[in-house]
Every structure is written in structure tokens, then in C-alpha cells.
Amino acid sequence: MNENVRVYVPGRREPKVVAIGGGHGLSTMLRGLKKHTRNITAIVTVADDGGGSGMLREDLGMLPPGDIRNCILALANTEPTMQKLLNYRFTEGSLAGQSFGNLFLAAMNGISGSFDEAVHRMGDVLAITGRVLPVTNQDVHLEAEFANGSRCLGESKIFYAKKVNDCRIKQVRLVPEHPKALPESLEAIRDADLIVMGPGSLYTSIIPNFLVDGISEAVAASRALKIFVMNIMTQDGESDGYTGADHVQALLRHALPGIVDVCIANNAPVSEEVLAPYRQEGVEPLRLERAAIEAMGIEVREYPLATGHRYIRHDSFALAKALMEVYREKLTMDN
Q1: How is domain 13-45+178-335 classified at the CATH fold level?
Q2: What span, in angstroms and rounded, lies between the C-alpha atoms of 231 and 6?
Q3: Structural domain boundaries of the chain?
Q4: Is the preceding peptide bond at 176 cis, omega within 30 degrees of 0?
Q5: pLDDT value of residue 13
Q6: CB-based burial label for 95 (10 Å; 0-12, 13-18, 19+)
Q7: I need a surface site. Which of 19, 95, 280, 282 has the fewest CB within 10 A?
């Protein structure tokens, strides 16, 4: 699908969509969703403490801007030059590796009364479709507990800690625990027609949102259709050896029953040539375990969603089309 082509249907109400997650998976999905509806609310984790975001978090005492920036840019309606400017990363000096988009949001945070206000203002400047919300305004860090009982504090350290411990992540928690959700996030969930979780890193992008007070309860209580988008591949240092059913079980264990109605998964084959470098790192295509997911009372739908000649990713527009297809089918059945 041409990225500039919108597929709104005249006379049809555009669904209110809430997308929950973080990282590149969420922004990839948003890029496709904005072609189908203008009523999008992205609720984004703020537990990141690595890379350029971690530097700004430590230096300026602000919440991490990286995932928020990616979502804003995915929903932005700006000239190509502005997109390039915001994606530009400095290559020299003390700013080496830092994104101009992160600095833009940091400056906006400096002239705003709160981080969510800064995010809102940046969205206005870039004329985004929908809105982007941090899941909380509180300063939180992510802690992982492994199956052997050891713990690791800091989202950016979990990958390496898992390698050292060589066992599965048992659970993650936020420090401090029970931060308050942004009221606008809870309101968006209550008003949603469709709630989408993922794709993205299970323990560091998706689950942290459900550890914020009120999010799990709001999603469980919502009458919206709730879809969990499965990753295409396992993730080295996070979900090694996991099946699709393992992903669902981990999400439900950290959240509440009733937050997933449907799982959407990829069924497009990936060539061995593209898979070869992934296999060297112990990363494999995600094995779904469809029967185990359905035994939890969750419907499974499969679509050809994978794309990429070098890196395996979700196709933004194929994923958005699949989400809308499932939503429209459920809407027809309910009526």
C-alpha cells in the first residue's frame, strides 16, 4: 500500500483505537493504523533507561523520550525534511548518538509544566494523527526477577543479566511500584472501540504498561475488542525459547484475565537466507502453539505480516489491514 493513501470509508465511523506498548513495534503499527482512522491514542511505556533516552533521563531528570518520539514521528504529518531532521543523530562530540527528536522533546519538556504536556505540544507542532500519551508521568525503573531468584534493576541491563543468569525471566516490576496512570490514558481505554497490545518486546515494552495502576483494570473492564499482536520472532535476551502461548501467559500473569480477546500472528514464511543471521544469535520464528492459546479462551487469527530482506519486521500496512478486518468482523457479528 502506498504510504500516502488513506483508506477511510465515507459514511463509516472511524473506530477509536488505543495502542499500548513501546519500542519500534508500536511505532511500526501506528504508521499503518493512521491510514484507517484518525482516532488513535498511543499509550507508551516510560521505563527505558538506555541509549540517548537514558542520557537525557540522567542529565535532565526527564522521562525517557525515545519511544515517545518514535510514536510521534509515526503519526506525524510533516514535510520529508522535518522527518529527516527529527530522525537525525549527531555523530560527533558530546551529542554523538543523540537524536535531534529527543532534544526537541527535551526542550519542549523544559518549557512545559509536565512531561505529558510536552508530548502533547510536540504532537501539535508536528500535526500528528491522533495523540501520544506516556502511560504515567512518574519516574519509574524496570526490575526483572529471573527463575533462579536473582534480580536486575534497569531496563537496559536486563538483556545482559539474562545472558549471565541463563534462565527465563520470572517477572518484572516497576520501581517504585504502583505509579499512577495518566488519567487521559484511562479515559482513552474506557472510550475505545479497539485496544491493541504489541507488537514489541514482551517484558520491556508491553508488560510495563500493565504494571501502572489502573491500566490492567481499565483494559479488562473495557467493552472494546482487545487484540494482542504476536511478534514474528523470539527476542534474544528476553523471550528466548518462548512460544506464542508463553507470550500470552506472561502478559496475563502480569496483568489480569480478560485483557485479550484475539491474538493476531504472522503466517508468512521467512527465507532461510534472511533467517541465517538470526539463528546465529539463537533467535527463531515464533512458534505459535495455537491450541494452547485457544484453550485460554482466546481466538487466534493468522495473516501474512512479515516483511524485510535483511531485518524481519511487521509490514505496517498489512498489520493495520488485518487489525481492521478483525475489528469489522466482530462489529458485524455484534450487530
Answers
A1: Rossmann fold (3.40.50)
A2: 26
A3: 13-45+178-335, 49-133, 141-175
A4: yes
A5: 82
A6: middle
A7: 280
DSSP reduced 3-state for 218: helix
Residue 6 pLDDT exceeds 60: no
* Residue 4 confidence class, pLDDT cut points 50, 70, 90: very low
Residues 6 or more apart from 123 whose CB is under 8 A from it? 72, 75, 131, 132
Q: Which residues contact 94 (CB under 8 A, 6 or more apart)?
A: none
**What would the grid cell of residue 242 be?**
518462548
Residues 251 and 168: their CA atoms lie apart, in Å, by 14
DSSP H or E run through 40: strand 40-44
CA-based nearest residue to 284, from 239, 230, 229: 239
Whole-number Cα distances in Å, 281 to 33, 172, 202, 205, 237: 31, 24, 18, 21, 10
Q: Alpha-carbon distance 60 to 24, whole Å?
A: 24
C-alpha cell at 92: 560527533
d(CA 185, CA 288): 30
The answer to whether 127 touches 76, Cβ cutoff 8 Å, is yes
* Helical H segments across the chain, by residue range: 23-33, 51-60, 66-75, 80-87, 100-110, 115-125, 158-165, 183-191, 215-221, 244-254, 272-280, 290-294, 316-334
pLDDT value of residue 232: 97
